[in-house]
Amino acid sequence: MKQHEIRCQYYSQEDLLGAGCLDIRLAISAVEMAMRAFEAGEVIFPEKVVQIFNEETQERINCLPATFRKLRVCGVKWVSVFPPNPVKFGMQNLSAVIILSEIDHGLPIAFMEGTLCSNLRVGAVGALAARHLANPQSRSIGFIGAGEQAKMHLLAMKSVLPSLVECRVAAKEQAEEETFCREMGQLLPNVAIQGTGGNLQAAIEGADVIVTATSAQAPLLKAAWVKPGSFYSHVGGYEDEYAVAQQADKIVCDDWETVKHRTQTLSRMHQAGELPDHQIHGNLQDIVLGHLPGRQSPEERIYFNAVGLAYLDVAISHAMYLRTRDSGLGQDLKIQQEMIFEHAHLKNWIRI
Question: Whose CA is closest to 211, among 187, 239, 182?
């Protein structure tokens, strides 16, 4: 290897899957580590850069960086969210890539597919919240939405709530429900999974765990369907009527200061003066690290809202990188062989 040669590893989604990175426990462990590091002041976490191309549909590309000082790694997630994709083009609505660099010399160490990590982070954070906030003997889970994040949420919830044996799902399109039931039924044969033909109430009413994971900007979830003792994981934007939060015994966020400036249901309530700061129980990090109590009663209705914190994606992607690197999968990429003016043939390539 020449003195100024720079190389990094490329990992496709198939490389990551082949190395065993669809691992909820790996992701949860990385999230818990990241929360401890964040509290200790070891994380650099700048504001994300958002480029919205269509205000109505919220088609956008975001750039989200973070650095872990002790791990000596800096990462960035470049993620596109195009909600119309599934219906208009039959394509996924989220796509991401992640770049990791070491911070001793500032050189890249990995370029990797990021959609798996992004969806895994959503599921892992929801599952970590459920570990502390759901009834531990929960048996049923209801979904509004049947896309990739709903599927990941089901895997994640089952990993922390092994007592789950029943799943009901409602989606906008019948085909989405059928795909969800077929794919998840193969992965979780001990869970009875059924679609409701788009009947939202049938999917949710009586469920111990509730998940809304849609791109809709409408109050689909009704408070009357949310039973005492349930745990609600709010994944998307504006998906539930205000009364769902108003009747909750505890409201927990991944980060309330971030949530209240966004467009989630809780954000809208706060901006309308209907949800003051003191009505928020706290952030998930404070519960995980033992600073605040989680569930204290079997009858509590608990509302959890996560907008997504990119430093958690970087932590998970770093754990995935280490596992995949050690597996031998992936490709070696040469970024440069020499510095620009060291190239012997530069005079043949230059244009002035």
Answer: 239
